[in-house]
Specification:
- With about 400 residues, this protein is of the alpha/beta class.
- The protein folds into two domains: about 130 residues, Aspartate Aminotransferase, domain 1 (Alpha-Beta Complex), CATH 3.90.1150.10; about 230 residues, Type I PLP-dependent aspartate aminotransferase-like (Major domain) (Aspartate Aminotransferase, domain 2).
- The chain has eleven helices and 15 strands.
- Strands 4-10-9-8-7-5-6 form a seven-stranded mixed β-sheet, sandwiched between helices.
- It starts with 8 loop residues before the first strand and ends in a 15-residue tail after the last helix.
- Bound molecules: pyridoxal-5'-phosphate and (2S)-2-amino-4-(2-amino-3-hydroxyphenyl)-4-oxobutanoic acid (3DJ).
- GO terms for molecular function: kynureninase activity; pyridoxal phosphate binding.
- Its EC number is 3.7.1.3.
- Catalyzes the cleavage of L-kynurenine (L-Kyn) and L-3-hydroxykynurenine (L-3OHKyn) into anthranilic acid (AA) and 3-hydroxyanthranilic acid (3-OHAA), respectively.
Amino acid sequence: MTLPRKDLFHLPEGVIYLDGNSLGPLPRAAVTRTAAALADEWGEMLIRGWNDADWIGLPARVGDRIGALVGAPAGSVVMGDTLSIKVYQALAAALEMRSDRRVVISDSGNFPTDLYMAQGLLDTLGRGHELRVVAPEDVAGALDDTVAAVMLTEVDYRTGSRHDMGAITRAAHDAGAVMIWDLAHSAGALPVDLAGCGCEFAVGCTYKYLNGGPGAPAFIYVRPDLAGTVRPALQGWMGHDAPFAFDLDYRPAPGIERMRVGTPPVLQLSTLEAALTAWDGVTMEEVRAASVALMETFIEAVERRCPGLELASPRDPSARGSQVSFRFAEGYAAMRALIDRGVIGDFRAPDIMRFGFTPLYLDEADVLAAVDVIAEVLETEAWRDSAYRTRARVT
Ligand SMILES: Cc1ncc(COP(=O)(O)O)c(C=O)c1O
Ligand SMILES: Nc1c(O)cccc1C(=O)C[C@H](N)C(=O)O
């Protein structure tokens, strides 16, 4: 299999897209499939689509496709809701499994919504739980027999620095804690071995490296030996054993389907299902090898040509996800200047310029052309233009 597979994507003319770590581009297969889901399924089938187009089976069917990309067996991943909700569900179930313990460990590299959801859940429980947020390198040292759950994102969204999932999961288990991984910046970016690492829960989003589109639903994995016993905190009817029996009392579905909540987002799941065909016939190992090669080319060229930028990501590729970040005090304005010139990355406060590497639709020529533009923006100080200083609502 050769990479990239640019033909599978709509890539706007004149753009080098280095932000697939935040929102993937539009896969061509998604255009036709979404149009068909609208016109042929919703339009023609109306309510019959639930059975005739198997809308009801989408959360499990798409979950299996994603499971195959993150090392999870069939029947252990299900789709739905936003990642924030899936974080809440995983943590709530983990705390029930360790009801005698009160501490949750996370780290300061985690994405804020994960921490916010944890804080809200712990407040709602009102049982004296504590969220302890430590530095990423201090996680292992923070584990003791008071820790109920460890909740981490494998790849830091700002620096791209990567945890060792296997080692941290083992350390959490040695301390008797439940392990939850957020794979937002891993799924479709790196090989992940959920079954091998033995974690109890994993969650992730699908709008980044999996190219499911803005607002695409999240996924949740529960280790197969636990899926029939974990208690869902959000007891929606779609997670019921028999939703269409309309019982007055909740009875969870026998396995992973209990982590469903309400009506699935059929149109977004259809888009995502088609988007995932871009992974057919390519392995995550091939994608990873190509990503590392692109990142090494990028780092070498940027450091040689742009001395004002300071590498914020680990230099060792094995300690990094599929993004490269550079620090620059005027990073926000500089990123705006780059975007104006067709090189799209993004900015994270206070000074991080982020660039994502996505070998399905990027090649070395793109990377070198992007560096030409970065060098030009820095050499000419184009970022000084006042037009680049006003902050957008979404960065
Ligand atoms: C690690 C992580 N968790 C959660 C989210 C967001 O969650 P949601 O899909 O609920 O907006 C992101 C990015 O948006 C993220 O990077
Ligand atoms: N989910 C996002 C959104 O709804 C709007 C803008 C950006 C995002 C993101 O995905 C941000 C991303 N998690 C990050 O790594 O910063």
